[in-house]
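A quick aside before the break. I want you to see a complete sequence-to-structure record at least once, exactly as it would be stored in a machine-readable document. Don't worry about memorizing anything.
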Amino acid sequence: QPSPKPNNPPSQRAGLCPIICRASAWCTSPRATAPTAARRCVRLAKTSLKQFLEYARSHPGTLNYGSTGTGAISHLAVELFKQMGKVDMAHVPYKGTSQVITDMLSGQIQFTTGAIPATMPFVKSGKLRAIGVSTATRSKLAPDIPTVSEAGIPGYDVASWYGVSGPPKLPQEITSKLSEVIRRTLNSPDIAARFEKEGVDITASSPEEFGRVIKSDIEMWSRIAKTVTISQ
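That is the input. The structure line, written in tokens, reads:
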């Protein structure tokens, strides 16, 4: 995924030859607690995204959300969520997903975005509550969880994607051949099933489509990054 940070590789900004792309769905998962002024936790009886948004809007600045680091997709995805949902939450950066989940469980933070396979065991056990899938369509791993767009923030659509790219000016013949071979592999039943277990929805794009995804994401995340003072 293109990074808005100043030290991102030059290949992510220009001169890269897109070959194929696939996308992974992310799930927003708030814990059912909120801090009081005394830094203790009280239970939030909020079971939907709409209720969570109503609470956050009526208690601006009192909720904390965690990410896997400043400038990471889990950071910028929530900043976009805040802007579109018109809520104010404080950012707490961590070094990894396990630290985020640990502090979610202890009530130190009340909201995060995370990969479905990493968070779903805690959701199923009742320790975390999933209120929305961040992509435009529902996940096959969690079909009962509505998308953020349909649950309260129309138009919200964030996915962490992975892609294959080549060097600048890669011959079209080679680009097309690689794209076709990778597409055929990704669409094979056994490979697709393995990815599905990891929460990945296969969207094997064409090189042209992948190029548009890169351009669109760089524009969107650069815009969001500027609002949270992350230099490009």
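Two observations worth writing down. Confidence is low (pLDDT under 50) at residues 9-14, 29-43. The beta strands are 17-28, 33-35, 41-43, 63-67, 89-93, 111-115, 132-133, 159-166, 200-201. We'll return to this after the break.
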